[in-house]
Amino acid sequence: MARLLACxxxxxxxxxxxxxxxxxALTFDDAPRGPGAFLTQEDRTTRLIAALRRxxxxxAAFFVNPGNIAASDGGASEKRLAAYVAAGHVLxxxxxxxxxxxxxxxxxxxxxxxxAGAWLRPRPGYRPWxxxxxxxxxxxxxxxxxxxxxxxxxxxxxxxYVTVDGSDWNMEGLTVAAKAAGKxxxxxxxxxxxxxxxxxxxxxxxxxxxxxxxRAPVQVMLLHETDLAALYIAxxxxxxxxxxxxxxxxxxxxxxxxxxxxxDVPSAQGTLLEAIAWEKGFPAPRWYARNTIxxxxxxxxxxxxxxxx
Length: 309
What we know:
Blueprint: H1 2-15, E1 22-31, H2 41-55, E2 61-64, H3 67-70, H4 75-86, E3 90-93, H5 106-120, E4 126-130, E5 136-139, H6 142-154, E6 158-159, E7 164-165, H7 168-180, H8 187-213, E8 219-224, H9 227-242, E9 245-247, H10 250-253, E10 268-269, H11 272-279, H12 293-303
């Protein structure tokens, strides 16, 4: 029966045009990230690799800040990145020191990218993608935005954009703070909130993309290399698959035609889909509701900490 079901699902996928399929790649920012609430950094890497393998995710992308290596344990962090590559995943540029573009001169920002690139380019698994820290592509400063677009092109770097964002960095920060304060954390509720938030954010992006572009582009999910990812990524992938999503590689995602779009909007910050929808006149909000931090924080307090509102 299981084999028959698998065959039927495969036939459905073949019959369904690519424009109608729900496909998504997983990407992790800020690698190698510092300590979280529950795991050592080495244990986090080991668990995350095992969870991705168990979930059938053959290739995820890790966007690297080499400055994190110098600020932590050096060789051990390098080994962690090498372990991701050995497991089939890829590395890309997230800047050296994670600066905000709107607070950094163009020349300094490009120099920071180059410093990260010098470390990354000789590494196995490297991909020529750059992801803007904070998803800040210049904000309202269009001259700066355009200078960075030109600077990336001159360096042979593609924009490592995202289309799906559930602000997992905030949930991780709330968890770290709760643990440090000695508050009881409902781990089952934390898992459920993490999974639910990311599946909902993917569904939101799929709906927005179909309305704004008339098709279903390959989505790119923004995650961070956190303890929460290591603990719950397999559950999240299973929930995505239950909703009809297929997990694809970052290589496949960045070949999607949406990668060639460069929307001209009043402020360049956020997901690519937000900008596309804004350019086409979609009214706000063009982002998933839990990216509003006050909304996300209230849910965390209520469901994970069981605090009265």
